[in-house]
Amino acid sequence: MDKILIVDDSAIQAARLKSILEEDYEITIAQTAEDGLSFASSQDFSLILLDVVMPGMDGFMLLKRLQEEIITRSIPVILITSLSDIQNEQRGFTLGAVDYIAKPFHPVIVQARVNTHIKLYRYRKQVEHQSMTDQLTGIANRRRHDLYSVTKWKEAARLKIPFTICMFDIDHFKAYNDTFGHPAGDKVIIAVAKTLSKFMRRTTDFVARYGGEEFVAIIMGGDARINYEYMKQIRKGIEELQIPHAPSAGEWVTVSIGGVTVLPVDSSQYGTYLNIADTMLYDAKRYGRNQVVWCGDEMKQWRQTDDE
Ligand SMILES: [Mg+2]
């Protein structure tokens, strides 16, 4: 059932809207714009019904905030208003509202408008999902990563959960393609993607094809040591696929892995730590490939070769 958020300072008006829609949708009510913003960024709504006139932050201000946030930007907003003058309607549309519902409510009209926008939203989500899936491997693509990472980074900062970013790169992949051809190379990429996905067991574990023969994973929870050990298992898991490599490159296809675990704070940037993970990956390559290099506690570098 799709979820709708009603943001309205009038409890009576919110209850009336709820009674019109609750048969077909799961309804949440926020009585202030501030609550509305926090609900919208922490839950999955398909539509927001937003009252324009509220004390403190009004509907227009909230709409602007929703549009600025990457997490809430795509949720359609219908403004509820009795301000029937043209200027206010224009302002609402300029700020990104998809529609208006005027007070007093006519149940049939409210239902029809809501149904239409929910349908459009679902369709858009479906298209979006397709555009965020890597065609070759069926896992998430880089675009999906870009969106997911920012959302989860904020969530981890809010909930104070450690956040792990990990980069993977298939070793000597060019040599593989040069020896066996690109169709065979594609099969290797698919096999590696499948194995990475198999290891990403929890619902918040995320892996995407970042480009070419490169992958990125995001893991919420667990300290640096736990995730570092986990990546060592994944490295082993890929080697144990025993995909014969090009003679010049080594016996089996392997991956190099670089990662970092961090406790995000509000002011910190995901991109900074993605770069650190990338630097660790670069070092893993430099130190001889088929190994895990980690930016451990107190920024000390951990290398698999040191552990063994
Ligand atoms: Mg009001």
UniProtKB/TrEMBL annotation:
UniProt GO molecular function: diguanylate cyclase activity
Matching CDD domains: GGDEF (cd01949)
A GO BP annotation: cell adhesion involved in single-species biofilm formation
Chain ranges of the GGDEF domain: 161-297
Source organism, top-level taxon: Bacteria
InterPro entries: CheY-like_superfamily, Diguanylate_Cyclase, GGDEF_dom, Nucleotide_cyclase, Rev_trsase/Diguanyl_cyclase, Sig_transdc_resp-reg_receiver
Any one of the GO CC terms: plasma membrane
Modification sites for 4-aspartylphosphate: 51
Task of the protein: May play the central regulatory role in sporulation. It may be an element of the effector pathway responsible for the activation of sporulation genes in response to nutritional stress. Spo0A may act in concert with spo0H (a sigma factor) to control the expression of some genes that are critical to the sporulation process.
Protein name as annotated: Stage 0 sporulation protein A homolog
Species annotation: Schaedlerella arabinosiphila
